[in-house]
Design brief:
Blueprint lengths: L2 H25 L2 H17 L10 H19 L9 H11 L9 H13 L3 H12 L4 H8 L3 H23 L5
Helix pairs in contact: 1-2, 1-3, 2-3, 4-8, 5-8, 6-8, 7-8
């Protein structure tokens, strides 16, 4: 095994749980998410020459994973997938917090859970509907009798609050 193979194996292991959680949010199926994570890691290894030094490895993996999830969605049109680009972009915004090397994945995930729990009821509901249940902005709007724009705005506020809260918690503060 070459040094670069070992290095990739270490990086892949460090990012596996993050990828699994990320993809599970997109596809709403743990088994399928595990398959996509495996496909992502194989593709990343095969195309390591496309990764540029200094780039964010976690973000690069999530980009590959997003594409794998989209390809899977096209192949299996009946499966649920978050397709609203505003929701997916927002997920990426929050997941950048998880790219920080200074904390264990479990600590980051626990901080995220605590910060989501601190959101107002309205913001938590938007997060639950779009990220946990995988509804589009319009479907979430229909459920809450709000507009799709209002749900999008709630998600934006929720992401901002979550990111800020998680960053403070990971630095040892109490947000």
């Amino acid at each position: 095994m070459h040094t670069s193979d070992k290095a990739f194996g270490i990086l892949a292991q460090q990012h596996r749980e993050m990828l699994l959680t990320y993809i599970q949010t997109l596809v709403q199926d743990r088994n399928l998410a595990e398959d996509i994570v495996q496909e992502t890691l194989v593709a990343a290894f095969q195309h390591l020459d496309r990764f540029r030094d200094g780039d964010n490895f976690g973000a690069w993996l999530r980009g590959i994973a997003r594409n794998k999830a989209r390809m899977n969605r096209r192949a299996h049109a009946r499966r649920a997938l978050v397709v609203d680009s505003r929701i997916v972009e927002g997920m990426e915004d929050i997941y950048t917090v998880f790219d920080r090397p200074d904390s264990a994945w479990e600590d980051k995930l626990e901080a995220m859970r605590q910060c989501v729990a601190k959101l107002t009821r309205v913001l938590r509901e938007a997060v639950r509907l779009c990220y946990e249940q995988g509804l589009s902005l319009q479907d979430a709007a229909n459920r809450t009798l709000a507009s799709a724009a209002a749900i999008g705005q709630r998600l934006h506020r929720a992401r901002t609050e979550i990111r800020h809260c998680v960053e403070i918690r990971l630095k040892g503060g109490q947000a």
